[in-house]
Amino acid sequence: MAKITYITHDNKTHTVDVQNGLTVMEGAVQNDIPGIDADCGGGMACATCHVYVKEEWFNKLPTKEDGEEDMLDMAFEPKKNSRLSCQLTVSDELDGLIVNIPSKQG
Amino acid sequence: MNKTDALIIGAGPTGLFTAHQLKLIGLDCEIVDNLDKIGGQCIELYPDKPIYDIPAVPECTGEELTNNLINQIKPFDIKFHLSERVEEVKKDKNNWVVKTSKGKTFLTPNVIIAGGVGSFEPRKFAPKECEKFENKYLFYSVKDRKLFQKKTISIFGGGDSALDWAVELSKTSKVNLIHRRDDFRGAQATVNKVKELEKSGKIKIFTKFQLNKVNGSNQLDSIDIKSDDGEIKNLKTDYLLGFFGLIMQLGPIANWGLNIDKKTIEVDTEKFETNQKGIYAIGDICTYPGKLKLILSGFHEGALAARACFKLARPNEKYRFEFTTTSSNLLKRLGKKSD
């Protein structure tokens, strides 16, 4: 179990408990947090679960797999700290993770 | 005006199998899809990814599934209208009048929305002021390349479309190629070609840059690109091209008076009808208690919606349930000889 904080583009903070094994994307979808569309359902095929990871967390996350950077090319306003939240699997180590959701996904 | 018993919006797996079901029970149907090819998400998003949960098919890719479904409807004459988006659906007595982006009109008692997560649209540039230049100086596809002759074109993107057009347009225009990172995901041969053209001065490449601003009052004058480190460069540009792939958007469906909940359409589970009589929603785009977003659910939903269509398309006939194993009617429609 990890506490994950999602900050939507209007600066609202949503902190929820997400079970280990779920992805950061699933944590948002199951808790009705707006701004993560996840159109493809976690297949790394659409870039609509794009988030910005707080700097202090970015290097602690598992590294990007092949294909994630390619999908990020298509995301809305990608930055250095961009990740696809469907590729971030929640574990105890991610307790306290903070992600920002972009102003839109498309 | 095209008259048909049912119009299907969406040529993904759900739409294709529903066409099969409609034709099998003796109804006409036509299919409209905004993509330029048949197959929907299966073809556009994951043609090579294996799928393991199609009943009786232990493993197949999105492309194989699509090809099998196309084979399954081969006995029937089904008209496809590709690269066309349905814009408007309006009531006319017992029928719906449906208009597409290419100006086609359909008259039908039944509209089946099998639209997945919506229609595929090009992903656009982030800066807001880009909109006013769209389709004049800024494009997301190339329709008339003559426009670009002897001009300066700035192309954004790192995939095959961006690279192919950079190579192609560099023959007759000055080309800037801008991408957010050093790696290009296009075919290696094209990447090499682009790098050669950079050496010979035909293409200028700017990596780790993204579009920051477009400048010009009526006509596009220049663009500002910004690097990861905040460095800004101004590039004189006549035309701007963006190739960031496609995104699914609900689009005009939102304006048809349907009950929509979080980008999905509410339906009953008997006919998969929406709150509008004669408009059905099936597959990923529909929602009801217990809905599963699986391809197999779309097949079931389509089969039931097709039977509901029969009532409205043939109000004076009674629908009779039959099996393909035994019915000479159905076998005839499938082009098979009955024993």
Structure overview:
With about 110 residues, chain A is of the alpha+beta class. Chain A has one domain: Ubiquitin-like (UB roll), CATH 3.10.20. In chain A, about 15% of the residues lie in helices and about 20% in strands. Chain A is built from 3 helices and 5 strands; from the N terminus they run ββαβααββ. Chain A has helices spanning about 25-30, 55-60, 70; strands at about 1-5, 15-20, 50-55, 80-85, 100. In chain A, strands 2-1-5-3-4 form a 5-stranded mixed sheet. Chain B has about 350 residues and is α/β, with parallel strands linked by helices. Chain B folds into 2 domains: about 1-120 and about 245-335, FAD/NAD(P)-binding domain (3-Layer(bba) Sandwich), CATH 3.50.50; about 125-245, FAD/NAD(P)-binding domain. Chain B is built from 7 helices and 24 strands. In chain B, the strands form 7 sheets. Chain B has a 5-stranded parallel sheet with strand order 6-3-2-10-23, with helices on one face. In chain B, β8 (about 95-100) and β9 (about 105-110) form a beta hairpin. In chain B, α1 packs parallel to α3 (about 60-70), α1 runs parallel beside α6 (about 295-315) and α4 (about 160-170) runs parallel beside α5 (about 190-200). The longest helix of chain B has 19 residues, at about 295-315. Chain B is elongated and about 70 Å long. The model of chain B has no long low-confidence stretch (mean pLDDT about 95). The chains are: A alpha+beta (about 110), B alpha/beta (about 350). The interface of A and B includes residues 41, 43, 73 and 76 of A.
**In percent terms, what proportion of residues of chain B is strand?**
25-35%
Give the structural class of chain A. Answer: alpha+beta
Oligomer: heterodimer
Number of domains of chain A: 1
| Percent in helix of chain B | 10-25%
Q: Low-confidence stretches of chain B at least 5 residues in length (pLDDT < 50)?
A: none
* Total helical elements of chain A: 3
Structure summary, number of beta strands of chain A? 5
The largest sheet of chain A, given as strand count, sense and whether it forms a barrel, is:
5 strands, mixed
